[in-house]
Request: fold
Amino acid sequence: MNEGEGKGRVDLTGEGVHWDLGSSQSYGEYLHLERVLSAQQPLSGEHDEMMFIIVHQVSELWIRLFLHELEFVQRCVIKDDLDPSFKALQRISKVQSQLFGAWEIMATMTPSDYTLFRNQLGRSSGFQSVQYRLMEFGLGNKNADMIRVHQRNPEDYARLKRALLAPSLYDEVLRLLSRRGYGVPQELLDRDFSQPWVASKAVTGAWLGVYHNADKDWDLYELAEGLVDLDHRFQLWRFQHMKTVERIIGHKPGTGGTSGVSYLAKALELRFFPELWQARTSL
Reply:
């Protein structure tokens, strides 16, 4: 064996690489990488600030995909064509796994690391994430007060107001249950969608009907389990967020003005689809 054999460059002989792209766009142009990779602008010069920015930007990109898939699921529910929604729900589950990973990276930052640049954030906070609020509204956690912080940006405020007033995914799912004959009260279908959902015994009964008739309405049964998985993973994400914040800043207030860990702990009590959890006790 000659010295160096088995090492070095990959043999490109016969590969037909397009060295000249001609009029075709390049990989970087298609993905607008010049814009994406120039969006990291640390203010402090401290080493960990770059990681902090990238983790939040990447999380926003994953949330954008979450919203894209969530809107698709809702359209499928409205059309009563559930089979394509199951792939989208599985994809949302994988997106949620990526969001878990973001907190694992963030947790590599020590309290002293964060202290070096935290003041540069001013009042900016994830609490002000438009996409996060759209995600919660889309899943049914409505709270009109939450959009007040976005009044300085009329476009964002209008987008959030539309989402606040629109039926959530869960509202559309309950409409579908009603159309399928599962007896959801009409006043719940015609309610003020800007108000938070309040758990209903009648809706729990409807879901019990779905579980008892799984052989007949397998697609509704599978939808129910997909929603439970989504809700479960969202709770895990919230918990991981809370523990990462506690690890880095303890019980200091958040930069956005909330109480920090105490505020995040309150969110752990929320469920998007409460009747699906209540039904489990009765099955």
Q: What stands out?
A: DSSP finds 13 helices and no strands in the chain. The two ends are 69 Å apart (CA to CA).
